[in-house]
Amino acid sequence: MGTRDLKTVTRETLAACGSRIDTSVAEGMEVMSPLTGTAVASLAPNGEADTRIAIENARTAFESWRMVPGPRRGELVRLFGEELRASKADLGRMVSIEAGKSPSEGEGEVQEMIDICDFAVGLSRQLYGLTIATERPGHRMMETWHPLGVVGIITAFNFPCAPWCWNAALALVCGDPVVWKPSEKTPLTALACQAVLDRALKRFGDDAPAHLSQVLVGGPEVGAALAENPKVALVSATGSTRMGRIVGPKVAERFGKCILELGGNNAGIVCPSADLDMTLRAVAFGAMGTAGQRCTTMRRLFVHEDVYEQILPALRKAYASVSVGDPLETDALVGPLIDAAAYESMTSALREASDLGGTVHGGERQKVGPKTAYYVKPALVEMPEHDGPVLRETFAPILYVMKYSDLEDALEKHNAVGGGLSSSIFTTDLREMEIFLSAKGSDCGIANVNIGTSGAEIGGAFGGEKETGGGRESGSDAWRAYMRRATNTINYSRDLPLAQGVVFDI
Ligand code: NAD
Question: Which of 139, 193, 334, 506 has its CA 20 to 30 A from that of 251?
Fold first, then answer.
């Protein structure tokens, strides 16, 4: 697709979602598409004053939204889910244009938004607290969950909309307004999502205050302003560990709440009893899908020596034959890297691996699209040691493969990295599976058996340990982070017994 065509498609896609934003602002913030490596829009960025005003407005919205009953708040999210269904193809295309994903993956991301909306609607009637046994006669003790306040959401380029929705759908049913700072690389998807939500808000009626959901376009400085502002009760930040190291302390300094969803260095372990055909397919999707640009991408693979010579040739073949190309023009499985910097970090990691004795298969830049775009063959690297670039996240399609002979040893290496997001074991041996899932097994927030590291469902809590930041979003009881808890003790007796039997007679 030519540069001019892509600009037109971008404009039309935004309009189809309902956005009327000006995308040709003179000397504005350029938005690039990795499909062509060229600008598809120019937007007016939001400055410091805009951010401050947006937070003030969100705080005002909070005053009334927190008093709207939970199930009624759920109705807004139900309507949003309906509007997302109607706009699925358009939003999916927006994701493809900005993040370079295939239509199937782009629409899959929108499906994730629809799924979390469904989850949140049910949740809106289940914001339960406990009734707790009290030691004092004639007393009752209970726990109440109240809306928390303004939620600031910072998101990464590689999932331009689903993580926002994991936060926003829950925040809205929990009674909290949201202010979203999307990646400066993918602001258009955010503006398109906001336009879709605006349609739901219009249908919802008057009990939704203005400024319940806002988008701020800009770079790290806008994220920093959210992190520093004491009126933002919760900052949910998705991105690199580098970003988390800056944002986390800023929020902590003012005793704000934080959910950090940061980088991972995810691994799989292939045991002797593994179903190798299934393993091959799971590893291929986990390591090459989304051009290796998922936080859950499989980056390391420990293969037992008994099956190494069986699975490696099959993996090499899959890597050599995988189709790389513009996912809007072809049915290629692997799209572009986000930009030149991503390509440089990939080539430098491969150079380092090679210097350490690694054998690199693939990794070459492909002649696809204009010179400004970065399409690469995914790289499979056979490493003699668990060392060097293997120990860190390089946000590109590189899979380091290492041989092991003892599961305990493989597990030790598996856990010996900074990231603690996702992990998999491939086995049909019950003992190996249980060890991997046990307290001495994988130390990640996500531990899978016989499926890859990526492609989580919304029903489970999503997030990871260590340098992944410790946050949890999406399903299970992640909603609690968006509310404040009060413990209430009610005395319905005529006495005043003190807890722990303390006496204080006056
Ligand atoms: P990034 O850290 O460069 O940017 C992420 C977001 O943080 C952007 O909106 C950016 O503007 C903002 N930001 C950057 N520096 C900031 C600062 N100092 N203060 C405030 N905000 C700041 O990440 P990226 O390149 O967009 O995304 C890739 C990274 O995100 C990878 O490390 C990937 O693993 C991680 N990621 C994690 C998850 C998860 O759920 N754990 C999901 C997606 C991506």
Answer: 193
